């Protein structure tokens, strides 16, 4: 298949750069202690998915973008920190995406289970806000992949219960986690989301291409470890220019089938074209369990 690339931007991404002692990486969120080396800064070219030919498909390339308006307003999304706002997003927004993913994948069952709304604080790097413990999520500044098999299974068991998780895995031939990402309020002009196309990397796998980073003393964190992407010269970086609130990026978070794209690395990047007066980025990402009758 010939892929035609027409437009791109340039910018900075931050990536895993090993540990100080050669051991598995850790971060103590209570003290800031870590054996992580400082993240490595890469100045890269990021291709525009809008001009990618043929257009990528969620189940083939692992990511896809499309127009998909929502019934929720910006003001309604921004009530996300209150119990009532959280419940409204679950009651009204989740069913929209459940129907979308069912239609896009032909899945037998789709279960939304988690959302994150990122509300950028201008004047700070996202890592600074993390250690300031404001409780307000910022753009993810390190390229990562949300789940490997162990963390995906942990989510399924925690959210649905171990018995229900076991029943679903036994009832369906394949299962996956899919993420749907949308701007809130305004097109994205600061810290856009990029996805990493690793189709040019032979035998890409978690053991060789992803580093586990364990969080210590963080009992509220909802998974056993993070998965940071290791650099590779053959990655292709992609984004959607001026992504609007009536558009979404869908990407594969995890797939139980091992001979397909198992997950799509992603993260925010600092676009060289960002104007000084560009608004803070607001975005919402929803994760959905997806079960298939066929392999």
Detailed description of the structure:
The model has no long low-confidence stretch (mean pLDDT 93). The protein is globular, with a radius of gyration of 18 Å. The chain has seven helices and 14 strands. α5 (149-160) packs across α6 (162-171). It has helices at residues 58-61, 74-77, 83-105, 126-132, 149-160, 162-171, 206-209; strands at 8-15, 25-28, 40-48, 63-67, 109-119, 174-183, 193-197, 210-216, 225-229, 236-239, 247-255, 266-268, 270-271, 282-292. It has a single domain (8-292), classed as Jelly Rolls (Sandwich). The strands form three sheets. The chain has a six-stranded mixed sheet, with no helix packed on it. A five-stranded antiparallel sheet has the order 4-11-6-14-5, sandwiched between helices. It is an alpha+beta fold and 295 residues long. A hairpin with an 8-residue loop joins β8 and β9 (225-229). Belongs to the asaB hydroxylase/desaturase family. InterPro entries: AsaB-like. One of its GO terms (molecular function) is oxidoreductase activity.
Rg is: 18 Å
Instruction: Count up the domains.
Output: 1
Stated plainly, the CATH topology is called Jelly Rolls
Largest sheet: 6 strands, mixed
CATH architecture descriptor name: Sandwich
* Spatial strand order of the main sheet: 12-7-10-3-1-13
What is the typical, i.e. mean, pLDDT?
93
How much of the polypeptide forms β-strand, as a percent range? Answer: 25-35%
What is the C-level CATH assignment? Mainly Beta
Distance between the termini: 23 Å
What share of the residues lie within helices? 10-25%
Structural class: alpha+beta
Tally the beta strands.
14
Q: Which residues form runs of ≥5 with pLDDT under 50?
A: none
Helical stretch tally:
7
Q: What overall form do the CA principal axes indicate?
A: globular
